[in-house]
């Protein structure tokens, strides 16, 4: 994402992108320390801010792994990352807004239809529910988006 976002922002520059939604870090939970995940995600937000966009800071949802997809490999690390993202959004409230995807979509029996069989990605219904959640997000009052993109 760190390599793709600058190219995407540059290609969209003529369209004056107002909002960039950033949902990342899930795949990094098993290979990187929390501080590096946060650093990478903050760098993405700063790139988008540098292009004049407001960013949606989306918390990292649960991931499930293992033979029965019953193990969340890094719940403490995920919460540490999410708290840092929450804090970042609060400190930069003129440039970003926080959406707690993790709280809205836990991986439980009641929400299983929102998750793909791989335990990492949303199902089609899950992405629709995510879209509904994002539509209700509170953007900074001074921003009215023209175009939204997701990386």
TrEMBL record:
Coiled-coil regions listed in the entry: none
Pfam family, one: Lipase_GDSL_2
GO molecular function per UniProt: phosphatidylcholine lysophospholipase activity
Signal peptide residues on this chain, from the entry's feature table: none
Residue ranges of domain SGNH hydrolase-type esterase in the record: 3-128
Source organism, top-level taxon: Eukaryota
Transmembrane parts of this sequence: none
Protein name: SGNH hydrolase-type esterase domain-containing protein
